[in-house]
Each structure stands twice: as C-alpha cells, then as structure tokens.
Amino acid sequence: MTKISEILRKHNLSTIRIEKIKKVTIIDTGEKKYVFKKGNINNEILEYLKSRNFDYMPTIVENNEYQITKYIKGLNIPKEQKIIDLIKLTALLHSKTTHYKEINLDYYEEIYNDLDNNLNYLYTYYTDLITIIESKIYPSPSEQLLERNISKIYDTISNSKERLSKWHNLIKNKTKERKVVIHGNLHLDHFIRNENSYLISWDKSRIDSPVFDLYKLYKNHALDFDFKPLLKIYENTYPLTKDEKELFYILISQIEPIKQSKKEYEKCKNISCILDTIYKTEKLILPETSK
User: Fold this and answer.
1) Looking at the predicted structure, is the pLDDT value of residue 1 above 60?
2) How many CB atoms lie within 10 A of CB 245?
3) Is residue 161 in a domain?
4) CB neighbours (10 Å) of residue 74?
5) Phi/psi zone of residue 37: left (φ > 0), alpha (ψ -120 to 50 degrees), beta?
6) Contact in structure between 146 and 134 (CB atoms under 8 Å)
7) What pTM value is reported for the model?
8) Residues 119, 160: contact at Cβ < 8 Å?
9) In the chain, which residue ranges form alpha helices assigned H by DSSP?
10) Which residue from 51, 123, 133, 174 lies 20 to 30 Å from 225 (Cα-Cα)?
11) Alpha-carbon Rg of the chain, whole angstroms?
C-alpha cells in the first residue's frame, strides 16, 4: 500500500475509500475512481492500438510498475449477452490490428514440438494412472469413473496427434503468417459493458496468432457457453484461415491432468469436468471437420 500512496501523492489524488478486489485496488477520491494493478501494458502494444483507432480500453493514468486506469462502472447484463459482446469486440480487435509477416517456421516448429510433447506426456500420465487402478481390488468411485472412460481419453489424445500432424504439414507450405494484437487473457471478468464495450487487464497482451485469444476464452468458459454460435459471430467479422482453425481445434482438444484433491467427491467432480469438456469439444469440432 506504501507504493500506491506514493503514486497517489504524485498525481495529487486524495482518497476517501480504498477497496481491494482480487488483484486490483480501487481508489475512490470522492470525485472519481481509479483502478490500481501491479504490472504494466507493453507500450509498443499501446501505441499500435492507438494507431489503429482501437480505444475500447480504460483511460490509462500511469503505466509503470503499477498500472493506473480510470474506473469504469459496468452494467449488470446477462452473461449470455456479455459473452456475445466480448466475442464481437475480440473480432474487432483482431481485424483492426491484422498484419502479415514472412513466416517464422522455427516459431511453428516450437509450437508443434510443445504440443506433441504434451500429448506424449498425457498418454504416459493416464497410462500410469490406469495401470495403478487396474491393480487394485477395490478402486475408489473416482478411479472407477476414470477406468470406465479411459478409452475416450485415449481416443482424444490419438485424434489430437493425427490433427497435429496434418496441421504441421499445412504450415510447411505457408510463406506468410497473419499476426494481430491479442489480449492474452480473455475472460468475462475482463470485459465491461456500459454505453460502450471495454477490455481490461491488458498486461498479457502481445503480437501473436488470433487463435490464442480464442483458445484462452474457450479454456476459461468451455462449459459455460455453446461456442458454436460464438465462433460463427466471430468469423462473420474475422474468418479464420484453414491452418488457424486447425490449430484452434488442436489447442482446445488438449486434455489436462486431473486436479488433485483429498476429497473423493472433488476427485469425481474433477474427472467429470475433464470428460464433459472432451464431449463438448468433440461436439464443436466433429461437424466442422466432417465437412
């Protein structure tokens, strides 16, 4: 709090109320409110967004060790409408900041190797788990749940391997790559809607493929919404290329290790969450790939 006090004095701001919400501090001066958050936004990203007339973000007061922005009060709107507004703004961000570069095959080789290594790890991880479970006379409910569904997990890993290989071959023939400014951490908590739409928490923003923004949004909300109509809304403004869509499908198909818990109920819940995500992702991907 000492550092915040120093910054307040620097900007001649007095406080009547200070509120801590998760990783941010909200300062109320009586006349205005400000949001303090540790970390900053890349200045080159900021300048690029300004040059592209993308101003759907809070007014920045300071952008050093601490990021200070003017507080924006959002409307209380249904989350179903909020996610639609967020996906529309994401498509606008990507369309306004699109540029093309000569393809960096080393960069894509690194992505390929990371994904391939992760799939190999997941196969070994689940094989070790199921081997232990099969050796037990009386497996627990969570172990029985995993044992009954392990073939689905193996199928998902195998299909991802095959899709990754196809994507790798697609990339080899490319000469240009499409880059955009990505927010880097798309989440409903980072979107505010009043008379305008705003994205907050830009400290993970960078220049990269648009796929990574969509992947992050899916990872954060896969079980909360039907992503098929959301992707359609996005692609009405900003259609993905064939290799971008393939990479997106590969990323969202990545299974995670099971979150550990001492409670059997929580273990069952965590495995069920993995299985639900597998089936929901499969439902999203299969109709598209069958075309």
Assistant:
1) no
2) 19
3) yes
4) 13
5) beta
6) no
7) 0.92
8) yes
9) 2-10, 43-51, 79-96, 105-134, 141-172, 211-221, 227-237, 242-252, 264-289
10) 123
11) 22
| Contact residues for 238 (Cβ-Cβ < 8 A; gap 6+) | 91, 94, 95, 210
- Residue 184 CA to residue 173 CA, distance in Å, equals 27
**For residue 263, what is the domain's CATH number?**
3.90.1200.10
Question: Which two tokens mark 252?
Answer: 């969202």
- Cα–Cα distance, 259 to 274 (Å, whole number): 10
Residue 13 per-residue DSSP state: -
> What residue type is 65 in one-letter code?
E
Domain with 26 in it: what CATH number? 3.30.200.20
> In this structure, what token pair is assigned to residue 50?
């300004």
The reply to whether 225 falls in a domain is: yes
Digit-coded pLDDT (tens) for 54-110? 999 998 888 888 888 889 988 899 999 999 999 999 999 999 999 999 988 899 999
Query: Residue 198's beta-bridge partner residues?
Result: 192
Kindly state the tokens that stand for 88. 């529309």
Q: Which residues contact 251 (CB under 8 A, 6 or more apart)?
A: 115, 211, 212, 215
Domain containing 6: what range?
Answer: 2-71
